[in-house]
Amino acid sequence: MLSKVRVRLPAGRPRTRPGAVAADKAYSSRGNRAYLRRRRIKAVIPEKRDQAASRQGRGSRGGRPISHDADLYKERNTVERLINKLKAWRGIATRCDKTPESYLAGLHLRASMIWIDDLLRAID
User: Fold this and answer.
1) What is the reported pTM?
2) Is 117 exposed, middle or buried (0-12, 13-18, 19+ CB in 10 A)?
3) Three-state secondary structure along the chain?
4) pLDDT at residue 10 in the model
5) Engineering a disulfide at 55: which of 12, 61, 62, 86 sits with its beta carbon 3.0 to 4.6 angstroms away?
6) Closest to 65 (Cα-Cα) out of 48, 83, 88, 89
7) Of the candidates 118, 124, 28, 114, which has an alpha carbon nearest to the alpha carbon of residue 73?
8) β-pairing, 42-44 with 20-22?
9) Number of C-alpha atoms within 13 angstroms, CB side, residue 120?
10) How far apart (Å, rounded) are the C-alpha atoms in residues 109 and 115?
11) Cα-Cα-Cα-Cα dihedral of 93, 97, 101, 104, to 10°?
12) Paired residues of 42 in beta bridges
């Protein structure tokens, strides 16, 4: 699943290895972690309770506990909240625009509306 993710900068050769991947508990499988480890990418994914219990049940054969950077994980939450604010606009949530250019224009418009709203709240 994660093998299909690509990161591209504005110009030049596509960058295919980010420094870290932040994801929620749904992506904490052994396979995803192994894939990220092979590519030398830091996994910022909390461990599910049942996976932790299973690992602990195996004792010393269960391996080390999974660690993740809590501060980096908090930044993921900030990004998720922004995406939710963008999707509050139905045109972006449904992706019903005909061209990528009009969809991008809608994203810019919605981002401007969020920015202006935040400025007005800061003034009050």
Assistant:
1) 0.57
2) exposed
3) CHHHCCECCCCCCCECCCCEEECCHHHCCHHHHHHHHHCCCEEECCCCHHHHHHHHHCHHHHCCCCCCCHHHHHHHHHHHHHHHHHHCCHHHHHCCCCCHHHHHHHHHHHHHHHHHHHHHHHHC
4) 63
5) 62
6) 48
7) 28
8) parallel
9) 6
10) 10
11) -10
12) 20
Q: Tell me the two tokens of residue 18.
A: 């980010």
Place of tokens 């990220």: 36
Q: How many residues belong to the chain?
A: 124
Residue type, 49: R
CA gap 71, 42 in Å, rounded? 14
